[in-house]
């Protein structure tokens, strides 16, 4: 999904402890003394600012997610003696801006997208001031901290992840047909699709309907291919507009995705069905008897749209594997995804301790057991997850060579939540070529 436009403000620390660090920009790794980025950082030392015994957190998730989140904090609160007050807000993006603007920021905020964090970066304490950057980075899936980096400083750390680069299939029918569950390349996966089509079943189910956001599913396809065909460095240049949106490499990716999605018989129902069917219904044809399609590319959250009987027996009903690499492209296994980034507004002994726990591989066991949560740490004990399917997804993510945040969430809102979506629809419908769609999106990029 998209978000508000990035703000490229000069970094300033939100507290006295961080103020001396504001002038350090441009380093690409750990800016702490002895780290690979070099340069001195005014590190926070316990005792500099005593805490009050209470730490406030503002986030976007409520309901069962809030219950699981609070359960994951219970033991820490008892052991540390720190009381954590969590406030959920469905209009988090607006509320956090209002509260920070009014001088009423929470101690910690949990940002569902990097852009909102960057917009408020001048009020946030960079994590290298109070966390052990190298230790944290060593346990995280590679590349995760890059999603929170602005002008050389990492402004937040992940406490939850979403994994998008997944291929789902109906286990019994797929296995009975003998199709590979570990294709090494996208070319091999496309070949499996050809085998499925030859058997009389449509290989892919892919639906994009999402009201005003129709088209976002298509942006994910482009992002997945950009990572695989051209690698994370070019991906970063593209999402940050260091190369134009209509760069020949981007146009090439549109053409490659088009070969898969627009070829007759590859996607159930064709273009009209894709555009007019809610994205949440994409997996349903896989679970008909017999299946009307065999493959769905979607993130781990798609399990929330599985039929109840399938969800109740997910390990036997559903299979999942990583969307593979591109032969001739980036050699490592990339993962596209998202996550909630914890950021610190008020630095003191208590809030620093909460941040250290919240962003560590020690957090989340209770949430993992409840379901619907993935740790961004490759060192998180996978036995904490409630089912084998989730453990498989966690293993896919933990073994990834590199993680990259959803590209449309990194782009200005006018693009990532606007012209990228709308031009994907026009491109799919054939009213614009790959070149024309990319030209139009480039022309819309804010100055």
From TrEMBL:
- Under which name does UniProt file this protein? ABC transporter substrate-binding protein
**What are the entry keywords?**
Signal, Transport
Q: To which protein family does this belong? A: Belongs to the bacterial solute-binding protein 1 family.
Name the domain of life this protein comes from.
Bacteria
Against InterPro entries, the record matches this protein to:
Bact_solute-bd_prot1, SBP, TAT_signal, TAT_signal_bac_arc
Organism expressing this protein natively: Brachybacterium equifaecis
Keyword Signal listed: yes
Task: From the UniProt entry, list the residue stretches annotated as the region Disordered.
Answer: 25-45
Entries under Pfam families matching the protein: SBP_bac_1
Concerning SUPFAM superfamilies, the annotation shows:
Periplasmic binding protein-like II
Q: Which residues form the signal peptide?
A: 1-22
């Amino acid at each position: 999904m998209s978000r508000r436009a990035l703000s490229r403000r000069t970094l300033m620390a939100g507290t006295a402890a961080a103020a001396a660090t504001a002038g350090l920009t441009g380093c690409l790794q750990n800016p702490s003394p002895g780290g690979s980025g070099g340069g001195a950082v005014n590190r926070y030392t316990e005792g500099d600012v005593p805490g009050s015994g209470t730490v406030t957190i503002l986030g976007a998730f409520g309901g069962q997610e809030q219950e699981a989140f609070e359960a994951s904090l219970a033991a820490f609160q008892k052991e540390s003696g720190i009381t954590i007050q969590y406030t959920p807000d469905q209009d988090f993006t607006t509320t956090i801006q209002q509260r920070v603007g009014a001088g009423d920021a929470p101690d910690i905020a949990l940002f569902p997208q990097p852009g909102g964090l960057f917009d408020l970066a001048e009020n946030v304490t960079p994590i290298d001031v109070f966390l052990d950057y190298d230790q944290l980075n060593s346990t995280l899936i590679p590349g995760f901290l890059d999603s929170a980096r602005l002008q050389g400083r990492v402004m937040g750390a992940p406490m939850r992840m979403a994994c998008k680069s997944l291929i789902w299939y109906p286990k019994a029918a797929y296995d009975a047909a003998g199709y590979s569950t570990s294709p090494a390349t996208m070319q091999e996966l496309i070949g499996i699709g050809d085998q499925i089509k030859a058997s009389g079943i449509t290989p892919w189910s892919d639906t994009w309907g999402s009201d005003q956001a129709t088209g976002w599913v298509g942006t994910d396809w482009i992002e997945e291919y950009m990572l695989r065909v051209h690698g994370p460095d070019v991906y970063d240049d593209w999402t940050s507009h260091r190369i134009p949106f209509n760069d020949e490499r981007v146009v090439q990716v549109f053409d490659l995705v088009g070969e898969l999605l627009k070829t007759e018989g590859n996607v159930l129902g064709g273009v009209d069905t894709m555009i007019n069917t809610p994205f949440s219904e994409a997996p349903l044809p896989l679970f008909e008897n017999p299946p009307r399609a065999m493959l769905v590319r979607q993130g781990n959250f798609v399990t929330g749209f599985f039929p109840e009987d399938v969800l109740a027996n997910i390990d036997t009903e559903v299979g999942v594997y990583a969307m593979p690499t591109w032969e001739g492209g980036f050699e490592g296994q990339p993962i596209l995804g998202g996550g909630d980034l914890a950021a610190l507004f008020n630095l003191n002994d208590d809030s620093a301790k909460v941040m250290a726990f919240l962003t560590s591989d020690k957090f989340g066991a209770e949430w993992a057991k409840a379901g619907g949560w993935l740790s961004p740490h490759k060192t998180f004990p996978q036995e904490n997850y409630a089912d084998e399917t989730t453990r498989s997804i966690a293993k896919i993510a933990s073994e990834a060579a590199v993680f990259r945040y959803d590209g449309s969430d990194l782009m200005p809102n006018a693009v990532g939540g606007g012209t990228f979506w709308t031009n994907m629809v026009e491109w799919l419908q054939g009213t614009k070529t790959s070149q024309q769609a990319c030209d139009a999106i480039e022309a819309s990029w804010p100055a």
